């Protein structure tokens, strides 16, 4: 084992993994965090704790990670390249590791122009792939990026995000390959709605032998309403929501749309379970944490394996 | 046109007659480098023109554009004017004529006389003759710049040799013993332009009371009566008792369209327009209380868009029109009223009481027409006008002798000018080929003025005294005299005899001026005229700046003398500031490509092509369709009965056999660039639309019109309803037989209505032609022609009469109550109102014929306008440069137009315009080199940052960054728009004449004193 | 080329408030080419300044002059004889020019009239776009001649990020995705294998992050 | 400010507006005498500087008068002029002279009536705006 990560163990055990997601609060209110997190206990194998997602300032990812760790959850500590240079990153990683955080996700981060501080300088000292390589190097070679040796290297199970649907499509698998090469132990993908296209992506990844070297968790998000479906389809960069999906949700009466969304989600999860190379799902129920138990229940993903 | 066997060695043409037709012919020829002898029997040139106060349809005076002085400044020295002269014999044959000219004594030496007028004042007998223009206060432009030549003459019959004049003549120009002279001229061809004379109402005075009643006058006399320079000095009084007339009546067709002895059977064509012009002018010039009534049989405004002029006169300007048969004029001795009795529309006798009656007298052949024809050895028509044919409209029976203007019959100015240019084209074909002519440039070398302090002369030019009316000229000159660099200022008076331009040139020499401001006319209209004068005085043309205080000040602010004067001062100050910084400009000379592009293979286009080709000019003749001939292909015969097919066939054959013409059928024009002398036009040919470019120096557009597809009167719904063209087809092929039992023709279908207010112009003639033809094929057939006005100009009136005599029934209808056509179980019925019986008549025709107009081929013409940067006028027809004085020119230099692309045209008109366009083109093609004197952009290398901005913004991709690393602009290609100069971030590019410092100086001078 | 744009008039007018006679100084290099500070722009701003001040009722004398280059001491030296007659120099050059003036004439206030923008190229008449960030360690050889540092919003060296959509960047449809361009060009060049090479974290010392940069040519500088 | 008679400089293209102005004169159409026309070969030649200088010298308004869209004798000079006028308007607002004092107008050579009407209307607009603000300042300074 590379780490003490629960996620690593579940995946190593060949189980179909389930990860959740949790957005830190825009304030110093820990209770809110705990309340949200409570819904996820025993429902998922790890919880991504986002890092100033969509470039909006939130409670530090490492702090929230520690909090939910105490609640018995496995935090997946996210870190974006936008806000830290290589020094800050490495020191935070050492701190997190020291306090028992075992899982990390490397990301570029949304551009500040989307967030609440568009005027902020964006660091991008290194990019997410370089970040992966850096963490792998710290863990396996026990060396800082600068080359110096580390006394007690951080034992991190490190993953990366991937968007199968960004353009250019042909570059997507190649880039996945780069991330694997850089040291991604697992991959969490962007929300999948177009399963055919995703299957194609997985097939290519499989052909390149990537699914051997890494564990791919397919990102899924329940569509709460026709409006949300449309928004995802039109507005979110690099998102692929097929028209029939939008139609299916939107065609329902308002009050039935959420239910339809969950139904659709469960069907998708069934298909993903069957898809070669898919090692699990990453369930992003943003501001819908309380629904997670129902979803995993109905998707037949319970009980979660005990590590 | 079959080539004559002229040796083509001479370069001279004899022009007989100095009216506008003769003048136009002379100017065109001179501009084309030809030697011209213009022989005029009167003491001075001008013909009727100087006697007209205004000309329709613009109702202003275009004399300065038509007379030599304003018409064309270059080439004038090649026109030799022989006044008081006539042709006594014409020996030899085409290409090598010898003309014997007799000149009467003038008793005044034209070279010495400066027309100061002293002799006229001194002469007790009024024997001194001088034909001034009419209204010297005309609010238009330069009045008749007194006579050309600038000299008086003496009428020996009146002269008593008292010798008074000798005393006062300082130039010592008078020689009372002067003898007549004769000379022989060698010329290659001859153009007859001796015009017509006004018909004299005397023989019909029992009808019109001319002579019997002093208040019955002719239109020309009325014209003078209204004129400030006329007998009443502008006071509007009637001859008999000096009372101010309020009820004025015009009697149309006085002496025309009549079989009465002393009258003329034909229509004089232009009297309708003249009367309307006079009526409108009377209403505008004098108070609105005037009641102007035109008594007419048919209104015949025949020229392009003249119908609109008629509608305006009737509906907007308040001229009354009474349709009637004028009968006799009596005088009520109690009231002094003139009483015109006339038969109204319903045939009832009516009386009209009037203060003045104006006889719209027509024109007839000059008294000596037959005599002159004998001398020339040419055949004349029954009416003693030159006998011409549709396909040879300006030719005479003697090769090498051509005719134009009223010697071919009464017509308006544009018609005369078009014929003049047409005759020039043909006459030139008999001369040495135009290429290779070296045009004499007799210009003094330019003075070196670089480094000199500016010595500016300010000249106020106010020919016609328009500016004075609203601007205090003295104050302007006064102000100018105080400005930096202004050393001289004066008014250039043309009204007092001497040629003002000479004065200008003298002043430049006398005061050693190196810069000139002319305040008065617009630089657009008169810039060239004065630039030439400045150049003649030894200065560079660019040393002139014009202040537009007439069109853009005096004429606009007539009710605010103070402001107008202030503004004039500002405008002149601007010009002075500008000219102070003027730099000499040196024109670029480029080889002139003589080849011609003719677009449109109809009669007009082919005429142009043949005329040019006959003079060794290479012609590309482009036709959209598969075959040549255009609309004429559907015509069978002319009104006179000649065969169109034969003539057209021969013409097409000539075109195809002509080695100088490259015919491109199935071909479209797709793009066009360059300037006159160096055009490049892109063509696409054949089904494959294969693209090629042709280089040419001039362009002639003759793309014709399209036929109106009627929607009225069951057309298309019933086979018995057809257009005149379709009828002509049937008649021509002899397929109409059974249909000819009862024929009804309806005129003005698709014209003179809201959708198309213009007149179809030739539909009346088509109707009469076909009506006669029907009668010819089936004498028993009943033919009705339902019309609004029968418009049968000149000799076609005779055909109209012939048709009536042949039993064709002409029934007038009112547009408010048009004929009604219906069809019930197979029976066609036409119901119309007979004005005389004033009740509806129903006819069941075997054939219903609609007289439909030609319309502008809109899409096609619009495309053309895009490609050649031209504009469309009312009705979508191509807009010529000037409807009066430049009828076949377009605003684009080197681009001419002919035929029905300009307006619906008859065969003869299309043919004439085609020849005319060729004649106009020759004035350019004869030039060996193209002189580009437009301002061009200049780069200051030391400033240039080689930023490429100019390269990017130039609409013609002319600037480039040269080997030395700065922008270079080829003056030969630059068209001088100045965009590069305006965008250059380094201010490294300056446009000649519009340099930044100069523009800013102008603006500042214009605004001086405001802060 | 260095690009710049004129500052808002309000800011400019405020910055010259204290002065009654200024020298408005253009530069005939980059700022001329990008229409920010050449003779033409100097004349325009000059007129605008006079107008703006007259409108406030505080006329100001504006002397207009454009130097060949404001970032070379020799050219700047031209001012030495006349500069004392002005209350201030208002430079329309890029920051380099402004500082060269300030350095040479310590006692003379120097006001920038333009905002220096970026190193760019002209895309068409009136359009300039950033092309180089001056990072001091050019990677264009590996990226098909398209710079990820200057043209990717996230400076990603192993891009594109997930936000790339139809060739556009996630921040705006008007911004091309540099990595789409890079990839297309690499395919064009048949060099797609260059992509698979993992790009190492960049040494930013050669860029601004290494502190103000100088170039000293031993073979030239004595 | 009713007795205020604005002075307006018109930069008129030789091929259209300048000709139209001549036509207006020959048609005896009236417009205020404050209208003063400067001839240019094409509005594309009208440098923004000319407009500013005119205002600087006390003009109350400036018209740039060019050909109708698509009719520019030099293809697109009128469009460039229009673009410059747009930018100038922004600048004039920035310095409180007012964007309303400069306008781009378009007409064809024959439209004498259009010229006269345009001139009248613009003068009326400028009358509303009042005199060029620098006049007042200048008079105070003096």
Main attributes?
heterotetramer, C: 222 residues, Rossmann fold, 2 domains, 4-stranded parallel β-sheet, 3-stranded antiparallel β-sheet, 9 strands, D: 142 residues, alpha/beta, 4 strands, globular
- What gross morphology of chain B would you assign? globular
Question: What ranges of chain B have pLDDT less than 50 throughout 5 or more consecutive residues?
Answer: 68-74, 132-146
Q: So what's the overall shape of chain A?
A: globular
Could you describe the largest sheet of chain B, including whether it forms a barrel? Answer: 7 strands, mixed
By DSSP, the count of extended strands of chain B is 47
Give the chain pair forming the largest contact, with residue counts.
Answer: B-D, 54 and 49 residues
Q: Helix segment count of chain B? A: 27
β-strand amount of chain B: 15-25%
Query: Pairing-aware structural class of the strands and helices of chain B?
Result: alpha/beta
Furnish the topology, listing elements before pairings.
The complex is a heterotetramer of chains A (307), B (1011), C (222) and D (142).
Chain A: H1 6-12, E1 17-22, H2 30-38, E2 46-49, H3 61-70, E3 75-80, H4 86-98, E4 103-107, H5 128-141, E5 157-162, H6 169-182, E6 186-191, H7 195-207, H8 210-213, E7 215-220, H9 226-234, H10 243-250, H11 254-274, E8 278-283, H12 292-298
Parallel strand pairs in A: 1-2, 1-8, 2-3, 3-4, 4-5, 5-6, 6-7, 7-8
Helix pairs in contact in A: 5-6, 6-7, 9-10, 10-11
Chain B: E1 12-16, H1 20-31, E2 35-39, H2 63-66, H3 68-71, E3 79-82, E4 85-93, E5 96-103, H4 118-122, E6 128-129, E7 153-154, H5 164-168, E8 181-187, E9 189-192, E10 197-198, H6 205-208, E11 216-218, H7 219-225, E12 247-254, H8 271-285, E13 291-296, H9 306-315, E14 320-331, E15 338-344, E16 349-354, E17 356-361, E18 363-364, H10 369-376, E19 401-403, H11 413-429, E20 456-461, H12 467-470, H13 473-481, E21 486-492, H14 500-510, E22 515-519, H15 523-536, E23 544-547, H16 550-554, H17 561-580, E24 588-591, E25 596-599, H18 603-613, E26 619-622, H19 644-657, E27 661-664, E28 667-675, E29 678-685, E30 690-696, E31 698-701, E32 705-707, E33 721-723, H20 724-733, E34 742-746, H21 763-777, E35 782-787, H22 796-805, E36 809-812, E37 820-824, E38 827-834, E39 839-843, E40 847-850, E41 854-856, H23 858-868, E42 895-897, H24 907-925, E43 929-932, E44 937-939, H25 949-953, E45 960-961, E46 967-968, H26 979-983, E47 989-991, H27 996-1007
Parallel strand pairs in B: 1-2, 1-9, 2-3, 9-19, 11-17, 12-13, 12-17, 13-14, 20-21, 20-22, 22-23, 25-26, 25-31, 26-27, 31-42, 33-40, 34-35, 34-40, 35-36
Antiparallel strand pairs in B: 4-5, 5-8, 6-7, 10-18, 14-15, 15-16, 24-43, 28-29, 29-30, 32-41, 37-38, 38-39, 44-47, 45-46
Helix pairs in contact in B: 1-11, 1-24, 11-24, 13-17, 14-15, 17-27, 18-19, 18-24, 20-21, 21-22
Chain C: E1 2-6, H1 9-15, E2 21-27, H2 30-33, H3 39-56, E3 61-67, H4 73-77, E4 88-91, H5 95-104, E5 110-112, E6 114-124, E7 127-132, H6 148-151, E8 168-169, E9 172-176, H7 178-189, H8 193-196
Parallel strand pairs in C: 2-3, 2-4, 4-5
Antiparallel strand pairs in C: 1-6, 6-7, 8-9
């Amino acid at each position: 084992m590379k780490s003490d990560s629960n996620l690593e163990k579940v995946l190593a055990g060949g189980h179909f993994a389930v990860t959740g997601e949790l957005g830190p609060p825009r304030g110093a209110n820990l209770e809110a965090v705990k309340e949200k997190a409570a819904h996820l206990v025993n429902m998922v194998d790890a919880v991504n704790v986002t890092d100033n997602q969509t470039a909006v300032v939130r409670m530090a990812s490492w702090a929230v990670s520690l909090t939910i760790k105490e609640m018995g959850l496995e935090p997946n500590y996210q870190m974006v390249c936008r806000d830290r240079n290589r020094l800050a990153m490495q020191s935070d990683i050492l701190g997190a590791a020291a306090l028992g955080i075992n899982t990390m996700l490397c990301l570029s981060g949304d551009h500040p122009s989307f967030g609440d501080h568009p005027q902020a300088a964006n660091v991008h000292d290194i990019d997410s792939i370089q970040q992966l390589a850096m963490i792998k190097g710290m863990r396996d070679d026990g060396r800082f990026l600068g080359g110096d040796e580390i006394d007690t290297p951080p034992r991190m199970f490190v993953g990366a995000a991937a968007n199968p649907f960004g353009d250019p499509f042909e570059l997507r698998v190649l880039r996945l390959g780069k991330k694997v090469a850089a040291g991604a132990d697992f991959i969490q993908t962007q929300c999948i709605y177009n399963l055919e296209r995703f299957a194609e992506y997985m097939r290519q990844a499989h052909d390149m032998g990537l699914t051997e070297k890494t564990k791919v968790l397919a990102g899924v998000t329940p569509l709460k309403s026709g409006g949300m479906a449309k928004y995802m389809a039109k507005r979110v960069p690099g998102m692929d929501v097929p028209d029939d999906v939008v139609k299916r949700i939107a065609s329902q009466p308002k009050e039935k749309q959420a239910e339809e969304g969950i139904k659709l989600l469960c069907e998708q999860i069934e298909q993903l379970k069957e898809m070669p190379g898919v090692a699990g799902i990453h369930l992003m129920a943003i501001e819908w944490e309380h629904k997670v138990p129902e979803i995993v229940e109905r998707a037949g993903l319970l009980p979660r394996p005990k590590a | 046109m079959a080539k004559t066997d002229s040796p083509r060695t001479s370069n001279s043409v004899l022009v007989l007659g100095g009216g506008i037709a003769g003048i136009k012919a002379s100017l065109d020829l001179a501009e084309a480098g030809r030697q011209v002898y213009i022989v005029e029997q009167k003491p001075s040139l001008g013909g009727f023109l100087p006697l007209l106060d205004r000309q329709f349809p613009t109702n202003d005076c275009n004399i300065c554009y038509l007379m030599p002085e304003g018409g064309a400044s270059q080439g004038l020295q090649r026109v030799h004017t022989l006044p008081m002269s006539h042709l006594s014999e014409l020996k030899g044959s085409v290409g090598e004529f010898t003309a014997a000219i007799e000149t009467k004594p003038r008793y005044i030496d034209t070279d010495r006389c400066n027309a100061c007028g002293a002799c006229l004042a001194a002469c007790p007998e009024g024997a001194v003759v001088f034909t001034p223009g009419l209204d010297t206060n005309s609010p238009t432009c330069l009045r008749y710049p007194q006579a050309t030549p600038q000299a008086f003459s003496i009428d020996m019959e009146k002269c008593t040799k008292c010798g008074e004049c000798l005393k006062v003549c300082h130039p010592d120009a008078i020689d009372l013993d002067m003898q007549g002279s004769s000379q022989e001229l060698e010329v290659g061809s001859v153009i007859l332009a001796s015009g017509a004379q006004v018909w004299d109402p005397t023989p019909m005075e029992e009808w019109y009371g001319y002579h019997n009643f002093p208040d019955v006058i002719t239109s020309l006399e009325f014209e003078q009566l209204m004129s400030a320079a006329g007998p009443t000095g502008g006071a509007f009084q009637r001859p008999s008792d000096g009372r101010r007339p309020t009820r004025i009546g015009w009697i149309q067709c006085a002496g025309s369209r009549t079989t009465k002895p002393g009258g003329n059977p034909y229509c004089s064509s232009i009297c309708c327009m003249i009367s309307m012009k006079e009526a409108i002018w009377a209403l505008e010039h004098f108070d609105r209380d005037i009641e102007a009534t035109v008594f007419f049989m048919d209104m015949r405004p025949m020229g392009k868009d003249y119908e609109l002029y008629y509608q305006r006169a009737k509906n907007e300007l308040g001229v009354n029109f009474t349709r009637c048969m004028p009968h006799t004029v009596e005088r009520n001795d109690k009231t002094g009223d003139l009483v015109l009795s006339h038969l109204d529309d319903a045939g009832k006798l009516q009386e009209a009481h009037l203060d003045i009656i104006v006889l719209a007298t027509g024109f007839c052949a000059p008294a000596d027409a037959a005599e002159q024809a004998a001398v020339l050895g040419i055949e004349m028509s029954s009416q003693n006008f030159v006998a011409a044919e549709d396909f040879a409209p300006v030719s005479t029976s003697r090769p090498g002798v051509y005719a134009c203007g009223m010697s071919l019959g009464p017509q308006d100015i544009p018609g005369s000018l078009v014929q003049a240019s047409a005759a020039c084209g043909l006459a030139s074909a008999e001369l040495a080929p135009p290429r290779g002519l070296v045009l004499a440039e007799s210009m003094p070398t330019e003075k070196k003025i670089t480094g000199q302090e500016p010595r500016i002369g300010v000249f106020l030019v106010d020919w016609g005294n328009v500016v004075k009316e609203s601007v205090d000229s003295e104050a302007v000159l006064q102000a100018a005299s105080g400005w930096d660099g202004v050393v001289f200022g004066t008014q250039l008076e043309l009204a007092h005899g001497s040629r003002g331009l000479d004065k200008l040139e003298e002043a430049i020499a006398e005061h050693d001026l190196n810069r000139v401001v002319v305040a008065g006319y617009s630089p657009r209209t008169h810039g060239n005229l004065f630039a030439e004068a400045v150049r003649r005085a030894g200065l560079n043309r660019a040393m002139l700046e014009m202040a537009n205080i007439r069109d853009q000040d005096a004429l606009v602010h007539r009710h605010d003398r103070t402001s107008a004067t202030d503004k004039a001062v500002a405008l002149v100050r601007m010009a002075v500031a500008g000219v102070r910084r003027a730099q000499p400009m040196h024109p670029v000379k480029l080889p002139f490509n003589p080849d011609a592009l003719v677009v449109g293979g109809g009669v007009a286009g082919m005429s142009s092509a043949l005329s040019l080709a006959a003079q060794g000019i290479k012609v590309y003749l482009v036709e959209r369709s598969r075959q040549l001939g255009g609309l004429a292909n559907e015509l069978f015969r002319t009104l006179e009965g000649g065969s169109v097919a034969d003539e057209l066939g021969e013409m097409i054959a000539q075109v195809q056999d002509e080695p100088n013409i490259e015919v491109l059928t199935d071909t479209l024009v797709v793009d066009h660039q360059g300037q006159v002398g160096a055009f490049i036009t892109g063509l696409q040919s054949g089904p494959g639309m294969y693209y090629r470019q042709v280089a040419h120096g001039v362009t002639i557009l003759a793309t014709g019109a399209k036929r109106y597809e009627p929607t009225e009167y069951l057309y298309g719904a019933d086979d018995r309803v057809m257009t005149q063209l379709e009828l002509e087809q049937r008649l021509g092929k002899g397929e109409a037989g059974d249909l000819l039992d009862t024929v009804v023709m309806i005129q003005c279908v698709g014209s003179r209505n809201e959708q198309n207010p213009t007149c179809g112009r030739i539909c009346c003639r088509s109707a009469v032609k076909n009506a006669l033809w029907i009668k010819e094929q089936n004498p028993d057939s009943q033919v009705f022609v339902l019309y609004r006005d029968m418009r049968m100009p000149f000799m076609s009136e005779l055909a109209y009469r012939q048709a009536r005599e042949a039993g064709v029934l002409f029934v007038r209808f009112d547009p408010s109550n048009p004929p009604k056509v219906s069809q019930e179980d197979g029976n066609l019925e036409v119901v119309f109102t007979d004005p005389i019986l004033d009740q509806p008549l129903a006819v069941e025709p075997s054939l219903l014929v609609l007289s439909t107009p030609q319309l502008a081929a809109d899409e096609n013409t619009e495309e053309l306008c895009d490609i050649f940067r031209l504009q469309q006028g009312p009705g979508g027809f191509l807009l010529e440069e000037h409807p009066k004085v430049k009828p076949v020119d377009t605003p684009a230099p080197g681009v001419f137009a002919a035929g029905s692309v300009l307006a619906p045209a008859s065969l003869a008109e299309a043919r004439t315009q085609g020849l005319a366009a060729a004649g106009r083109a020759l004035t350019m093609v004869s030039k060996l080199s193209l002189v580009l004197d437009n301002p061009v952009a200049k780069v200051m290398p030391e400033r240039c940052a080689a930023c490429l901005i100019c390269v990017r913004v130039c609409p013609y991709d002319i600037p480039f960054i040269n080997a030395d690393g700065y922008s270079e602009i080829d003056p030969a290609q630059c068209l001088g728009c100045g965009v590069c100069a305006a965008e250059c971030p380094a201010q490294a590019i300056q446009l000649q004449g519009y340099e930044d410092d100069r523009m800013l100086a102008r603006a500042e001078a214009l605004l001086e004193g405001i802060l | 080329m260095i690009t710049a744009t004129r500052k808002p008039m309000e800011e400019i007018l405020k910055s010259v408030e204290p002065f009654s006679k200024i020298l408005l100084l253009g530069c005939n290099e980059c700022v001329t080419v990008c229409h920010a500070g050449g003779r033409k722009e100097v004349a325009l701003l000059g007129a605008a300044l006079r107008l703006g001040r007259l409108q406030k009722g505080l006329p100001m004398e504006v002397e207009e002059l454009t130097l060949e280059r404001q970032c070379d001491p020799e050219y700047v030296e031209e001012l030495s004889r006349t500069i004392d007659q002005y209350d201030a120099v208002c430079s329309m050059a890029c920051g380099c020019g402004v500082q060269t003036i300030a350095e040479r004439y310590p006692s003379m206030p120097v006001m920038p009239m333009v905002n220096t923008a970026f190193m760019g190229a002209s895309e068409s008449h009136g359009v300039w776009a950033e092309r180089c960030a001056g990072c001091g360690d050019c990677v264009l050889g590996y990226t098909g001649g398209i710079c990820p540092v200057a043209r990717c919003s996230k400076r990603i060296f192993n891009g594109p990020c997930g936000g790339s959509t139809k060739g556009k960047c996630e921040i705006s449809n008007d911004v091309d995705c540099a990595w789409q361009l890079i990839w297309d060009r690499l395919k064009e060049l048949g060099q797609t294998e260059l992509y698979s090479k993992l790009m190492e974290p960049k040494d930013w010392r050669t860029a601004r992050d290494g502190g103000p940069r100088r170039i000293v040519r031993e073979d030239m500088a004595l | 400010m009713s007795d205020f008679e604005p002075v307006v400089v018109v930069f008129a293209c030789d091929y259209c507006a300048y000709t139209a102005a001549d036509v207006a004169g020959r048609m005896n159409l009236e417009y205020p005498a404050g209208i003063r026309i400067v001839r240019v070969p094409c509005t594309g030649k009208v440098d923004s500087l000319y407009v500013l200088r005119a205002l600087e010298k006390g003009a109350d308004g400036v018209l740039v008068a060019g050909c109708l869209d698509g009719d520019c004798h030099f293809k697109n000079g009128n469009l460039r002029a229009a673009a410059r006028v747009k930018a100038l308007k922004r600048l004039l607002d920035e310095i409180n002279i007012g964007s309303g004092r400069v306008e781009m107008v378009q007409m064809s050579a024959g439209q004498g009536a259009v010229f006269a009407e345009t001139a009248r209307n613009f003068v009326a607009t400028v009358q509303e705006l009042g005199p060029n603000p620098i006049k007042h300042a200048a008079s105070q300074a003096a």
